[in-house]
Amino acid sequence: MGAQRTTFDKLQRDRAKKAKQAAKRERRQSGGSRVEDETPTPAPLPSEGGELSAAELLEQIELIHRQLEDKTIDFDEFEERKADLMARLPID
Predict the structure, then answer these.
(1) 9, 17, 53, 73: which has the highest count of C-beta atoms within 10 A?
(2) 9-15 mean pLDDT
């Protein structure tokens, strides 16, 4: 009996890992020296019970979009923050 082949999911994970490594290597080689401490952070949000106005929520969403474009946060962190902010939108 032959050896078991790798699954499609494993192949996808390996490809994604290699792509991430290549992007990181390219970013390092391009001389992109950025300082993490100087990145703007969103204003602290009130606890889950607190409410923000629509203008404040839009401002926060705009800020995380800028951070993603500037590559100060990764896509996963962007998605987490966006989901949190979208959950706070008042629905009438």
Answers:
(1) 73
(2) 79
